[in-house]
Amino acid sequence: MNQQQDQLEALHEIRNIMDRSSRFISLSGLSGVFAGLSALVGAAVVKWYFSQHNINYYSDQASNFSRQDILFLLAVAIGVLVLAFGTATYFTARNARKKNQRTWDNQSKRLLVNLAIPLATGGVFCAILLYHGILYLVAPAMLVFYGLALLNGSKYTLGDIRYLGIIEIILGLVACVFVGYGLMLWTVGFGMLHIVYGALVYFKYER
């Protein structure tokens, strides 16, 4: 009995070693929580801006926004991205130090490359939508391409991120149909879902 238990423990240890060698497992759940909070703050700022300028996204989503409106939305999006990336870098580096692992290695490089390709493609696609004045599809496109990026990178990090990616894609497709709810679904996808996902990962792997 003891021999069988020792063999099972040895196999479990071998599996953990192989997992660590092929996946970047230092991704912190707190980075997801703070990314979600950043998105909620950004959505609140946009909602305030719309109310100040009498813009009703639900009825005006197909109308042409002014140049000032577009620049403001881009500034908020960049601010959310920088804040989310900064907190993700900090908490992931801290988690890696706690686990005595390197933050920048072959696994993290592969993860970033596989995330970057769909994200860069989505960024260019959203820029094309803006160029043609199709603003009501920008939020859905962001959700879809972000979900594809998570799905593409999930094989190089925690498997839980795969499910988040699938839900983001579904939300994006729903937002493509119900375009008037694009901003609300963007807030759910990038805000609330990130907070829920980050909390689950944190209590599952880091506590």
UniProtKB/TrEMBL annotation:
Keywords: Membrane, Transmembrane, Transmembrane helix. The chain crosses the membrane at residues 24-50, 70-91, 111-131, 137-154, 161-181, 187-205. It comes from the Bacteria. This is Uncharacterized protein. It comes from Pontibacter amylolyticus.
